[in-house]
Amino acid sequence: MKLRASDLANAIGGRLVGPDTEIDGATFDSRQVLRHQLFVPIVAERDGHDFIGDALKAGAGAYLTSRPEIVEGLGGTAIVVDNTAKALIDTARWGRTQFPASTVVIGVTGSVGKTSTKDLIVAALSSAKRVVANVRSFNNEQGLPVTILNAPLTTEVLVLEMGMRGLGQIDDLCRIARPHIGVITRVGEAHTELVGGIEGVAQAKGELIEALPPQGVAILNADDERVIAMRSRSVAPVLSFGESANADIRITELRLDAHGCALFDISTPSGSATVNLSIPGRHMALNAAAAIAVGEALGVNLELMVESLRSASISDRRMQMKTTRNGALLLDDCYNANPTSMAAAIETLAQIPATHKVAVLGVMAEIENPESAYVKIAQLAHAGNIEIIAVGTDGYGSPAVSIDQAIERISQYDDSSAVLIKGSRVAGLERIVDAVVPN
After folding, report:
1. Which one in 17, 70, 100, 138 has a CA-CA gap of 20 to 30 Å to 331?
2. Taking residues 182-191, what's their average pLDDT?
3. How do residues 285-305 score in pLDDT, each as one tens digit?
4. What is the per-residue burial (b if ≥16 Cβ within 10 Å, else e) of 326-349?
5. Are strands 62-65 and 78-80 parallel, antiparallel or unpaired?
6. Per-residue CA distances from 80 to 294, 307, 382 (Å)
7. Quick one: pLDDT at residue 197?
8. What does pLDDT average to over the chain?
């Protein structure tokens, strides 16, 4: 999105210092500055103001600052504001108004599957629309604004993943994004300790549905009772998806191939087709159905969507299929974990026809009643004849091992083995993947 620095300063109540210039997009990471971008120094554990000089050297067109005393020494074009984090939000809120009225904004949230669903929506729509979405999981009060600001004004569909760590946060993101379509993947045990349990999660996720206009569309998981109940919170029409008999976008004949990838039939108001994904996970069928529901709402041809989904890929560390140096199949799902997503990954591993199945599991953070959650996952693994290697926790009922010990064990497995690696970000299990998978 190309903006004049002077127009931006006026829009957000900032003070322009230095020459007026053109800004093209925004970033809060000085290591990833592109030419002409607006650099936004966030004040957190580290003060982003310390990196303004680096951003200017990298080609930043302008920067925000709440420290006017440093501007003269830095040079360049500055917009002085009271608070840079708030100014980034104000900038994105104003930037959102610069898109044509025809631009469709889609919000995606849920306890599990939101990033994969976002990626599959992009894949399904890209054959027919100019689509832009968050990179990776840029889904908070910093990531969502830069996604908006980095989207060209020629964007036809803007897909915005929305995360939450408390009540009211998705509502805040919706006030910036003003979505037309809202997608809820699932309500599960993620961040439950922050919102008072799973009902609090449902309340928080449903803020997206309440933000939709009457002419919008709410896209809801018919297989999740807490999600489909959000129908009552919507003033917009509802499209449902899932395996339920009453789903508008219905999955039938769902099965997995030898690599755990979903093959299924899909029925929609516009027709039916067979979908064959190249991403492991039974639950990926549900995410793909949500993407097809979005396409149905926008009038995208079903055959085009199915063909695009056949070769779709998803963001790093989310059920990515890899091979170890010794030939074992490895499912890299170590980006994050909660009981719901952990169970889905275990169920996928259980259905892969390998002689030896191993789940390398780390901690699940920010959940209520973690002891019972770990026990249930362990029971699910044992029922699937899956060996557990527990890294950094003995909650699964297995002796805890170190990352180095896990690497040593996995390195010995051959092509008769299938290995799942999954845990919350704090577990750092990506180090295992990087050590056993060749570059």
Report:
1. 138
2. 87
3. 999 999 999 999 999 999 999
4. eebbbbbbbbbbbbbbbbbbbbbb
5. parallel
6. 40, 49, 59
7. 85
8. 95
| Residue 401 structure tokens | 């091992």
Q: What tens digit of pLDDT does each residue of 81-131 get? A: 999 999 999 999 999 999 999 999 999 999 999 999 999 999 999 989 999
Which position has the token pair 């002419």? 215
Query: What is the dihedral angle through the alpha carbons of 217, 218, 220, 222, rounded to the nearest 10 degrees?
Result: -70
Confidence of residue 368 (pLDDT cuts 50, 70, 90): confident
Tokens of 102: 């025809």
User: Each residue of 10-22: pLDDT tens digit?
Assistant: 999 999 999 999 9
Say which residue the tokens 């952990």 belong to: 342
Over the stretch 152-168, which tens digit does the pLDDT of each residue have? 999 999 999 999 988 99
Residues in the chain: 439
Q: How confident is the model at residue 191 (pLDDT cuts 50, 70, 90)?
A: low
Please tell me the distance from the alpha carbon of residue 92 to that of residue 85, in angstroms, as a whole number: 11
Burial of 181 (0-12, 13-18, 19+ CB in 10 A): buried
Per-residue pLDDT for 340 more than 70? yes
How far apart (Å, rounded) are the C-alpha atoms in residues 14 and 11? 8
Which residues does residue 250 pair with via DSSP β-bridges, in sequence order?
A: 242, 267
